[in-house]
Amino acid sequence: MPGTTARPCSSISPRASSTFSGSSSGRRISSTSPLLLVACAISLFLFTAVAGRLWCGYACPQTVYTEIFLWIERVIEGERNARTKLDASPLSARKIGLKAAKHGAWVALSFWTGFTFVAYFTPARELGGEVLGLALGPWESFWILFYGLATYGNAGWMREQVCKYMCPYARFQGAMFDRDTLVIAYDPARGEPRGSRGKKADPAALGLGHCIDCDICVQVCPTGIDIRQGLQYECIGCAACIDGCDQVMDKMGYPRGLIRYSTENALRERLGFVGILKRFVRPRTLVYTTMLSAIVAIAAVALVMRVPLKVDVIRDRGAMVREVEAGEFENVYRLRVTNATESAHRYRIVVDGLPGVRVATDAVIEVDAASTRAFPVRIRVPGEQAKGGSQKIAITVTAEDASGLEVRETAAFFLPRKDGE
């Protein structure tokens, strides 16, 4: 301030580090985020205990992208037999063209994936203009290339190897399964003994079950397992073997469901659909459901009661206390104010906690919508009314143009010690 004379008081030594340090955190705007993460984890446990690896089979990006890449491969190179013949054929213009078209489509999709990821952080129109103008920055180029190559390698080449050897979920899923978990299962009582036969042959007369040992279930499995050997940790629950087996059953004139969604207890006890549903309610699922309901309720209450305003109070450590005119002592702070609402607001700063304490700078600040601004704030206390040492004060930031937007934070105010203190 013009005309202000201020000198640091040597009775309290500032620490030699950054200018501003030591924050008093405001009420967390995103306090529901940890609860939502915990809710997602418990949901994963619950759904896995009830219905196995639904995430792996139907929602995991590795599975989804692998299916997309396989679809591109089928469109360009044909079905499995055609692809096998193409791979075994000598090099020709047709083979080079088909392979180039397939890998070109894979690369295009992969780098589009990398582009869309980076577009979360750089506006898509701006990023698109930079790509077309060959003006990408180093970090944008790195992340587009990184995610593009990762997608191409994982979905195009590694495929099921990611699920079998790299994904940790396949390893700990066994701890969440029990004998009443709904999994993809082969019915040995109906399928064994297996063996090939003609379409019009009577399996009972031949002493055979309904499995014709065609290995379709193995051929369509993305992880290459034989579901007829029982549940295996590599099974991702995609149900491709169910679809393949049902098609074979239709051609043979046998009932569907030789491979189906079932449970170990249901297969052993020959339970129907109603019996399986009854077993869904059991101690494990009840515990998961109770925990999930409680966390969701707490998160909902926290979301309703949240204040879309955050204030961080950071002390100036360059000069902990200064003596200014009229015998007052001054501490300097930086207020970092986050406005999480969709409109700009004017906030008033009020301080209390010590006799005569006041804000010596402009007490009204403005923050735009969904933004954060930092403001230097000088707070003064009359020297004759305050005790020496560290004193506690409270800084309140209140929106002048909206009700309910108020945050109160505590901070330390330093004063030089007087003789005898």
Task: Give the secondary structure arrangement, pairings included.
Layout: E1 7-8, E2 20-24, H1 32-51, H2 54-59, H3 61-77, H4 80-88, H5 93-118, H6 124-132, H7 138-158, H8 160-166, H9 169-172, E3 183-186, H10 188-191, H11 203-206, H12 216-220, H13 240-252, E4 259-262, H14 264-269, H15 273-278, H16 283-305, E5 309-316, E6 322-323, E7 328-339, E8 345-352, E9 358-359, E10 364-367, E11 371-382, E12 389-399, E13 406-415
Antiparallel strand pairs: 1-6, 2-5, 3-4, 5-7, 6-7, 7-11, 8-10, 8-12, 9-11, 12-13
Assign the structural class, choosing from mainly alpha, mainly beta, alpha/beta, alpha+beta, or little secondary structure: alpha+beta
> Total number of β-strand segments?
13
Any idea what the shape is?
elongated
* CATH architecture descriptor name of the largest domain: Sandwich
Calculate the terminal CA-CA distance, rounded to whole Å.
31 Å
What fraction strand? 15-25%
In the residues, how many domains can be counted? 3
Main β-sheet description: 7 strands, antiparallel
Question: Would you mind describing this structure in some detail?
Answer:
This protein is of the alpha+beta class. It has 3 domains: 7-27 and 308-415, Immunoglobulins (Immunoglobulin-like, Sandwich); 53-168, no CATH class; 183-262, no CATH class. 43% of the residues lie in helices and 20% in strands. It has 16 helices and 13 strands. Strands 1, 2, 5, 6, 7, 9 and 11 form a 7-stranded antiparallel sheet that branches. Strands 10-8-12-13 form a 4-stranded antiparallel sheet, with no helix packed on it. Strands 3-4 form a two-stranded antiparallel ribbon. The longest helix has 26 residues, at 93-118. The two termini are 31 Å apart. 22% of the residues are buried.
